[in-house]
Amino acid sequence: xxxxxxxxxxxxxLAILLPYGWLxxxxxxxxxxxxxxxxxxxxxxxxxxxxxxxxATGWESLKDxxxxxxxxxxxxxxxxxxxxxxxxxxxxVATVSTAILLLIGYPVAYALARAPRRWQATLVLLxxxxxxxxxLIRVYAWINILQHDGLLNQALIALHVIDHPVTWLATxxxxxxxxxxSYFPFMVLPLxxxxxxxxxxxLEAAADLGAPPWKAFFAITVPLSLPGIVAGxxxxxxxxxxxxxxxxxxxxxxxxxxxxxxWMEFFANRDWPVASALAAVLxxxxxxxxxxxxxxEARQIDKAR
Amino acid sequence: xxxxxxxxxxxxxxxxxxxxxxxxxxxxxxxxxxLLGPSGCGKTTLLRLLAGFEMPDAGRVVLETQDLxxxxxxxxxxxxxxxxxxxxxxxxxxxxxxxxxxxxxxxKGEIAxxxxxxxxxxxxxGLAGRRPDQLSGGQRQRVALARSLAKRPKVLLLDEPLAxxxxxLREETRFELKDLQQxxxxxxxxxxxxxxxxxxxxxxxxxxxxxRIAQVxxxxxxxxxxxxxxxxNFVGNVNLIEGRVAQVYPGFVTIEREGLRLRVAQAEAVxxxxxxWAALRPEKIRIAHDVPQDAVDGAAENGASGVITDIxxxxxxxxxxxxxxxxxxxxxxxxxxxxQAARTVRVNDxxxxxxxxxxxxxxxx
Amino acid sequence: MRRxxxxxxxxxxxxxxxxxxxIAILVVYSFNDSRLVTIWSGASLRWYRELFNDAAMLESAxxxxxxxxxSATAATVLGTLAALALTRGRRFGGRLLFSGMIYAxxxxxxxxxxxxxxxxxxxxxxxxxxxxxxxxxxTLTLCFVAVVVQSRxxxxxxxxxxxxxxxxxxxxxxxxTVTLPLIWPAVASGxxxxxxxxxDDLVIASFxxxxxxxxxxxxxxxxxxxxxxxxxxxxxxxxxxxxxxxxVVASLLTxxxxxxxxxxxxxxxxL
Lengths: 305, 365, 271
Prior knowledge:
The structure holds three protein chains of three kinds.
Chain A: H1 10-38, E1 41-42, E2 49-50, H2 59-67, H3 72-79, H4 81-114, H5 117-132, H6 135-146, H7 151-158, H8 172-196, H9 200-208, H10 213-224, H11 226-241, H12 245-250, H13 258-268, H14 272-304
Antiparallel strand pairs in A: 1-2
Helix pairs in contact in A: 1-14, 4-8, 4-11, 5-8, 6-8, 8-11, 9-10, 11-14, 13-14
Chain B: E1 5-14, E2 17-27, E3 32-36, H1 43-51, E4 58-63, E5 66-67, E6 78-81, H2 93-103, H3 108-121, H4 137-149, E7 155-159, H5 167-184, E8 187-192, H6 195-201, E9 204-209, E10 212-217, H7 219-224, H8 229-234, E11 239-249, E12 252-257, E13 260-264, E14 275-280, E15 286-288, H9 293-296, E16 303-313, E17 317-324, E18 329-335, E19 350-354, E20 360-363
Parallel strand pairs in B: 3-8, 3-9, 6-7, 7-8
Antiparallel strand pairs in B: 1-2, 1-4, 4-5, 9-10, 11-12, 11-14, 12-13, 14-20, 15-19, 16-17, 16-19, 17-18
Helix pairs in contact in B: 2-3, 2-4, 3-4
Chain C: H1 6-30, H2 46-53, H3 55-88, H4 95-107, H5 110-123, H6 130-153, H7 158-166, H8 171-200, H9 203-208, H10 216-224, H11 230-270
């Protein structure tokens, strides 16, 4: 095939440049802008922040604009207890939800992987199908069930488990329920992919050497499915940290996760600089897990080459 | 002496397919036993029935005096070396070998000592800390062997253990395997489709065909006295000469067919007029240029004249295809004792083939 | 020794029940005649009729469909190219950055990507509306397409392309006549994934939308905040039906083309 680097055909160059350029323009550059805005001040103007970098106004005014940047917003984030609490709440919800997802998702993924081969494709399709329906719909479905006169209360009263309706909505539990429900496939699919690759003869060897099935599960199956566990955990934890819709619809003001706080600062208070600063800090918190995830994916491709 | 393992009228079916069909077999203590047969004959199924990964549909498997029905694989004093080795990729060599010992909750010191002992046994000391993906194929095979012997099982099962090795390594490992078995005084049951392997390693061989045992015996018995044409054909090369029984004498039988008269030294229950086969191994046939006098007269037994149509050169020996005057084609084999240029037999030469009466085996099946 | 015991069956059954129960309830109640979700007063198509008379809702649906079609197509083109670059391209400058940009959006919280894109559009002074949403969705979904196509390319037999080029076919034509026909199920499922993601997106669309570009999720969301409305049940049921039909069709297509591919491969091996 192609030998020297310089020998690359022009179509290949274009093939790389097109998506590359798009992503730099619409993914990378915006982050730099977030950074810049986070260093600005809010203003009653259009756009609602100062300073505004306008190349047309000349070099001097650009220099002035630069000097107007400050770390005020970051200072207020660090000092205001509400913001710290919001980040903490997000971390709590993300960690607990991921743990619940792992506990519930593992048995289902395991069952999928052990199912007869002919059915596996169909069963996986069944697990994935809800994911293809609208995310909003699925959260909304839970509102239907959890509201004060909703089906859950009706069922519980009919079964004589409770006497009068319990408040399910606008609680932390409702948020956990909604998150676990929505992110279920994100945990199950990576786990299934790892478990499905497990070599059955390894389990036979463990049994041959004296390990009863439950011991073989913990000594062989779980350690070898670790890559799937890590992938699933990352795929859930990172986006849950920034979740907005679920806590907004199912939670109360006591569940102000950072996604909601950001939204509120942006849309309600029109404080774009603070919202940007919040986003920047969230990014910093998430950078480590994102790097881990990215490096794993890159290594997967290289291994498969 | 009572056998160590008995299969009593074992039947195993997979759906509509019968893998093992009403099979009875006994394996003795300290025996190197081979299950030999073509793919699909049921030899691997039999192994797995003993290991506990399959349960028989009929019959029982008995180890010493214990009926193994319902006993799961992790409670049988039987260990298996898998064809793919099945080494645990997340454990080191030492971790793999120690795995079975840990299940028995042995004290740590004893486990460590046993692991070292095993490493010495398979000559892998010093590699204890490596992981399977850092080892060569031959090294992985030794780890699998060490792991399966660590618990000192009564019976060691080996599923095509040398299949993945290249030829040179295979031959070296064969000797080591045999040596190991004799030293450890354990029974080894090996499944293989490679006859050379079975003959070189085993004290006794069971040749299997489609779920049943065709013949059980020592390698010599199987090779020199096959009980049926199928066994004769499966193990090694053979000429199967079909003919009619002419006369039955005490101690031998004559068989005739067009242009050929054979005297076969065997007393099987045959009667004149029956059709029978004489099994004649190629290496038992002598090739000569000169036709003996009584052959010219047409009264020769165990001999025929023919023309060489093809010579297959295999280095140590050559296989000669000879077309007899009657049209029958025989294969003869002879060691290449002299170098190529000095060989006296060439294609299209007319030669005289001869053999002794006890070189043939009379078969009616 | 592949045993699918009762424990596994129970886990699977419970898991699937958990997933489908809320959706099933939604669908059932969309046919409920009563306005109150809690009381069943007979089956009717009342809410579907009201839905079709709701001009605003219908307009949002068409806006969403338009955006989804355009962004899915653009994302598929860009994502497929990106996947090719990732699996084929040898060391090119900035490759690390490139792969980072492909994988990061998959996990990035949507509030961050939405905010960043909005700020970009403001800084460059683009009027926000239909097209900004298209750009935003393309950016997000092209990463998903890249991942899907790349996982197919990794198992692709390169010797087919080499054979084509050996016979005189230049790279671009090779791609169009040899590679693409063989990987099209992956490309198609990438397109469908991008389409579904775009149709479903609420957060990013909310950030970058403008006047006259209210997508269906935005409208549903604003109505849901005011309380449960039976009309929403009807919308949701329709969306579920459409998606389910699409998925079934897609899986049938891929199964058939897979079978055909396997037959072709077997034939080729015999020749």
